[in-house]
Structures are given as C-alpha cells and as structure tokens.
Design brief:
Layout (H helix, E strand, L loop, with lengths): L1 H7 L6 H12 L1 H4 L4 H7 L4 H10 L5 H14 L2 H22 L3 H9 L3 E5 L2 H15 L5 E4 L2 H8 L7 E6 L8 H9 L4 E6 L4 H4 L3 E5 L3 E5 L2 E4 L2 H24 L1
Parallel strand pairs: 1-2, 1-3, 3-4, 4-5
Antiparallel strand pairs: 6-7
GO molecular function: carbohydrate derivative binding; DNA binding; DNA-binding transcription factor activity
Keywords: DNA-binding, Transcription, Transcription regulation
Pfam family, one: SIS
C-alpha cells in the first residue's frame, strides 16, 4: 500500500513531497491516468520534483509509480481502505509534525499574556476545547472565540504580546479574511492548524502546523471526514509544550 511506502521512506520526504502524496492519496483514481506533466501542474511542482519523489519511494520512474497505483486500486476493498486511510492520516500527521520547528510556538504559548483560539467548524472547536483543558492544567487559560462576530469584537483587544490559534479543515477562510489581515497588520502572533495543502489561512499566520484528513465515506446524507489528525496535533502540541517548559525549568 502507498501509505506503507510513505512510512518506510519518511526520512527522505520533504513538505512538498507530502503535499503531492496527500493529493495522490485523495485522487488516486485520477492520478493513475495522469501524465507526469499533468500531475506536476496540479500540484504546482516541477516535473523533475515529481520524478525525484517517485525515486525516493523506490520506483524506477513515474511510469512504474503509475503502474503501482493502478495495481493497488484494483486490489482495494472498501473496509481495508477505510482503516488504511486512518493509519495514513496518523503517520503522515506525525511525520509533518516532526519536520516543523515547534520551539517558537512553545515560546509564544509560554509568554503570551492572553491566548485566543478560533475554529471554523464544530470539529475544530471540539479540538480547541481539548487544548483548553490541557493548558488550564498548566496554568494557561485559552479563550475560545465562538463565532465570527465575537472574533471581530475581540480583535480590538488583541495585542502583540498575545497569541491567536486558528484551526480549519480546508484553510479557506474567506469570511474572516479581512479579520485575519487586521490581526496580521497589528503584529499579533498567530498559529494555524490546517489540513496539509496550500491554503489562505496558513499563508496569513506567523507559524503553521499541519495534519492530514481524508474523507471516509458518504452515509446518512452526510460526507464523513476524519479529524484524527487534528486531535493528534493537539495532543503532540501539548506534549511538546510540556517537555519544552520542563527542560527550561531544569536548565534554570
């Protein structure tokens, strides 16, 4: 399975590699019939970058990579696919987390006078409630902004000595774009936690954390999306912060 190859060669993969692989995993049926030029344009990567990635995964070139995708899709069963996607979300999220320098984020959390957080949906708000619970036990209070109107009201109180954390599945935040630009203009530090892809939210924040989220079916008239990657980021952010603070205390 592709996720097994990704895990096996994780040490060789860059953020751009993960971005393309995320696209491949979500659109395998489409990619297996694409030319290397079509895939490179779709992912905003050069042909040589795509070719290098296939070789990092152990293939002789793009043609063998496409053949592999066709073989794998023909063997899949629905039940295997659902659980494999969950494991891929977990492993890819862990790999992305390891590649990011989190120390500046930990320092912002430690030194912030006030920490604000805004989630674009119910699942994101739920994850922030978990973060709030963790931080409260470390004597850090997280103020969760419940809706757009409250965000607009709160902006006037935000200072460069504060921190704002945003969570979004897609990272496409047209409805609060103006508010984000205002926060950025006022030099208030920000952290975005989004699905791993090019998105407007990540581009407008000071620091970025990424998770992988895949669709796992349409049932009961609802499209189901996994938030296991987001919950994992919250968990590891807290663990990392706790380790960072503890090591600083030991040094002093």
């Amino acid at each position: 399975m592709l996720h097994e190859l990704i895990n096996k060669h994780a040490g060789k993969l860059s953020e751009n590699d993960y971005y393309m692989l995320n696209y491949v995993q979500k659109h395998t049926d489409k990619v297996k019939n694409m030319t290397i030029l079509e895939l490179s344009k779709e992912c905003n990567m050069s042909k040589s970058s795509v070719l290098r990635l296939t070789k990092k995964l152990g293939f002789s070139g793009y043609s063998e990579f496409k053949y592999y995708l066709k073989e794998q899709t023909s063997r899949k069963t629905v039940s295997e696919d659902i659980f494999d996607l969950s494991m891929t979300d977990v492993q890819t999220t862990l790999n992305l987390f390891k590649k990011i320098n989190k120390v500046p984020i930990y320092e912002l959390i430690k030194n912030a006078e006030t920490i604000y957080a805004y989630g674009t949906g119910w699942g994101q708000q739920n994850a922030l409630q978990e973060l709030k619970r963790y931080l409260l036990s470390m004597n850090k209070y997280l103020y969760i902004i419940p809706a757009k109107k409250e965000l607009q009201v709160t902006i006037s109180h935000m200072k460069p000595t504060d921190l704002v954390i945003f969570t979004s599945l897609s990272g496409e935040i047209d409805e609060i774009m103006t508010d984000l630009k205002t926060i950025h203009y006022n030099q208030v530090p920000t952290v975005s936690i989004t699905n791993f892809k090019n998105n407007h939210l990540a581009k407008l924040t000071t620091h970025q954390l990424y998770f992988q989220s895949t669709d796992f079916g349409y049932a009961f008239n609802v499209e189901h999306k996994s938030f296991i990657g987001l919950q994992l980021i919250i968990d590891h952010l807290v663990r990392g912060y706790l380790t960072h603070v503890s090591s600083m205390e030991e040094e002093n």
